[in-house]
Amino acid sequence: MPDTFWFALEVTLNGLMAGVMYALVALGFVLIFKASGIFNYAQGVLALFAALTLVGIMEGQVPFSHLINAVFGTSLHHIGFKVPALLAILLTAGVMVILAVLVERYILKHLVNQEPIILFMATIGLAYFLEGLGDVMWGADIKTLDVGLPKGISDTIEATTYDLFGYGFFIDKLDIVAALVAALLVTTLTLFSQYSKQGRALRAVADDHQAALSVGISLRFIWVLVWSIAGIVALVAGIMWGSKSGVQFSLSLIALKALPVLMLGGFTSIPGAIVGGLIIGMGEKLFEFFIGPLVGGATENWFAYVLALVFLVFRPQGLFGERIIERV
Amino acid sequence: MKKTFAALAALAIAASTVPASADLMIPNLSYRTGPYAAGGIPYADGFNDYFTLLNERDGGIGGEKVVITECETAYNTEKGVECYEATKGNGALVYNPLSTGITYQLIPKVAADGIPLYTPGYGRTSAANGKVFEWVFNYPANYWDAASVAVKYLLEQNGGSLDGKKIALVYHNSAYGKEPIRTLTELSKKHGFTLVEVPVDHPGQEQKSQWLQIRRDKPDYVVMWGWGVMNAVAIQEAANINYPMENFIGVWWSGSENDVMPAGEGANGYKSLAMHGTGMAYPVYDDLRKFVIDAGKASGAGDQVGSVLYSRGMYAALVISEAIRKAQEIHGTAAITAAQLRDGFEALEITEARMAELGLPNFGQPFAASCEDHGGPGAAMIQQWDAASKTWSLKTGFIAPDDEVLVPLVMEDSGAFAAENNIAERCN
To answer: I need a labelling partner for B227 at 20 to 30 A (CA). Which of A165, B157, B205, B330 fits?
Structure first.
């Protein structure tokens, strides 16, 4: 087999891996949209905020230290010890739950029965607020995130594929972890929604708000629940992306990578987010490999959207989205 | 009564925000928010802190206090232009927007408004030709100088020949990132190496395709023109594919602590260009600590002092302050205008003795501007990252660029700009 074939296969595999990373971000959008019909513009910023909080806790940083020092003339920066990664992740998950409660209490509660566009605009405001809050709480400098995840080329895969095909494949160990985490996350979310009481309530609200309310399901509780889960999913995405590039404010832009995934997979399907991510990841990498050199390269950003648009033409609801039926 | 109170309050607010007319007004078009904030913050802090030092220690420049007005651009060209329009009417003396995109937009505006634009190490390279760009200054070095210095360094490493070598340029797919392509293309013809262009789209969070290509093509060297998260991701990806870090060289905008820290040990040995020294081993930091940081007057949290980008912001402020001194000397007045400051920039000479006097010995290259030369000598050093000690160390002294290649390119590009804009050459 020529090297080009193996290289294309390597690109495909890496595209699938990148797609998993996109899907991790897209999952948060799907969860909130499915349960409340809100397109959460703040999902990327939630991932940034979660990652900032995680690093801050791990490093033992005093939140709002710059503000406190400026107001009171103190020089507080650190609490004097570092927090183990696992405990810090649990504490950050707690922060994301508190954030979900606050979002419901101070934003969503006041917007019940408003048009979706109003709710969407509220999440735009939330995104900017959270970005500023993250800056004031933890500072805007780049932070190194190391929760002990392996990084770099998998020597085992490289050696094995070299022995088998005469071509050593590159697969990043972090991407393998991300794929496993995504599989675990989807399984957990599916089991939760199928077999737990809260999960069934969540599905009921997703199907019909009014009917769910009439049987005594608390819409406010469901919103808190779904924003908490989306916050925890954002934390997972933040850990994966932050481990790769450090935690910095550009992390919020990973949402841009999730949009074509949503357009393709559908806004209401968890498997759709995964499959959409895989198709987008693989598609953009293969396009860059085959066509990129002919058009000057750097095609990935726009090609993902073109690919999603093509799918939209044939399936406006996305691959796994609920079928749009309009009756006269 | 209410009206009187409101009027008094308005007066008080106005008095507190508008500086005295004789102050030296310098807008700082900075970015402390958005995806590039991590680079914008230390630069802005270094810039502001140096002027605060002059105000606190020396009572300003020539007896005139410097007033900095910050305006947030978020590294966005439209916002940068808005900032310029919002601040130019307040007696702005000079602009330093730390963005090539904003610089391109401001070049015609500053010429029309008569305000100097100072873009050290960034912006439009051919603005080095003072015959065409009367109001723009980019000394001590520019992008094309950087590309040439990188190639000269590689020539030194390869016994004077790059014949048959392959160099990949990983660049930010923007006006900034594309700047060195022309120079490197010319240099590849001259020295016989193959140039492979590898663009990365903004912001550069995902670069798997690019680094798989590099893994396959196996270039002898990788040169990077990145900014923001793109740098950190590229260095991490290079480490992932086990690319030899000593063969990976970034431009000076890809050579800060922000770029290497996220990759941890993997970044060890990574190199970058440096147009000035870095670290705390300069006497100026004693004064900065005493008069600014410990006095609670630092622009930021004071935790960026001595970092690469803080040093660069401070260096830009130093050059501007020296240009102000020169303008005051030429025109015999402390309260100079923007047009008078332009004269100061054009007549500026900074010697090593002067740098030492300012507390920065062996920090930057000496240079002397002139009517024709707004670009300076263009030399740069090579620095290397040591992941264990988390420090940069200089590997070379200043390396001069290849003017034989660069000068004709600058003349051609600036000549085209002059023709497009009907600009008559000056300095004749």
So the answer is: B157
- Check residue B201 and report its DSSP letter: -
Share of chain A residues as helix, strand and coil, in percent rounded to the nearest 5: 75, 0, 25
- Residue B108 and residue B190 in one domain: no
| Cβ-based contacts of A298 with chain B (< 8 Å) | 173, 199-201
Per-residue pLDDT tens for B291-338?
Answer: 999 998 999 877 789 999 999 999 999 999 999 999 999 999 999 999
What is the number of domains present in chain B? 2
User: Among the three residues B274, B296, B318, which one is the final residue of a domain in this structure?
Assistant: B274
**Claim to verify: residue B148 and residue B136 sit in the same structural domain:** no
Does B33 share its domain with B137? Answer: yes
Q: Which residues of B touch A246 (CB under 8 A)?
A: 229, 232, 258, 261-262
- Single-letter residue type at B205: Q
**Mean pLDDT, residues B369-394:** 96
Question: Which residues on A lie below 8 Å from B234 (Cβ)?
Answer: none
CB-CB neighbors (< 8 A) of A76 in chain B: none
User: For residue B18, what pLDDT is reported?
Assistant: 45
Query: In this predicted structure, what is the pLDDT of residue A297?
Result: 84
DSSP B285-351: HHHIIIIIITTT--SS-S-STTSHHHHHHHHHHHHHHHHHHHHHHHHT-SS--HHHHHHHHHT-EE-
| A245 interfaces chain B, CB cutoff of 8 Å | yes
Whether B75 and B136 map to the same domain: the answer is: yes
Q: Judged by CB atoms within 8 Å, which residues 42-81 of B form the interface with A?
A: 42
ipTM score: 0.89
**Would you say residue B317 lies in a domain?**
yes
Task: Number of A to B CB contacts under 8 A, please give it.
Answer: 125
Residues B151 and B264 in one domain: yes
Q: What is the Cα B330 distance to its own chain's centre?
A: 26
Domain end position, chosen among B224, B247, B274: B274
Alpha-carbon torsion, ordered B306, B312, B316, B317, to 10 deg: -20
Answer whether B38 touches A (CB < 8 Å): yes
* Residue among B173, B208, B229 minimizing CB distance to A250: B229
Phi then psi for B64, rounded to 5 degrees? -100, 130
Q: Do A66 and B301 touch (CB under 8 A)?
A: yes
Interface of B with A in 106-125 (CB under 8 A): none
Residue B167 and residue B124 in one domain: no
- For residue range A75-114, list pLDDT tens digits in order: 788 888 999 999 999 999 999 999 999 999 999 989 887 8
Predicted confidence at residue A70, as pLDDT, reads: 79
Is B218 part of any domain? yes
> What are the pLDDT digits (tens) for A204-237?
887 787 888 888 999 889 999 999 999 999 999 9
Is there a domain that residue B384 lies in? no
- Cβ-based contacts of B266 with chain A (< 8 Å): 151-152
**CATH code of B54's domain:** 3.40.50.2300
Which residue on chain B is closest to A134 by alpha carbon?
Answer: B33
Q: What percent of chain B has pLDDT over 70?
A: 95
Note whether B199 contacts A: Cβ–Cβ < 8 A: yes
Residue B318 within any structural domain of the chain: yes
- CB interface of A with B, residues 261-300, below 8 Å: 284-285, 288-289, 292, 296-298, 300
Query: Which alpha helices (DSSP H) does B67-207 contain, by range?
Result: 77-87, 100-113, 143-157, 175-191
Provide, as residue numbers in chain B, all residues whose Cβ is less than 8 Å from the Cβ of A11.
209, 212
Digit-coded pLDDT (tens) for A228-274: 999 999 999 999 999 988 999 888 888 888 999 999 998 888 889 99
* Beta pairing class for B381-386 and B391-394: antiparallel
Same-domain status, B122 and B151: no
Same domain, B135 and B202: no
Host domain of residue B204: 143-274
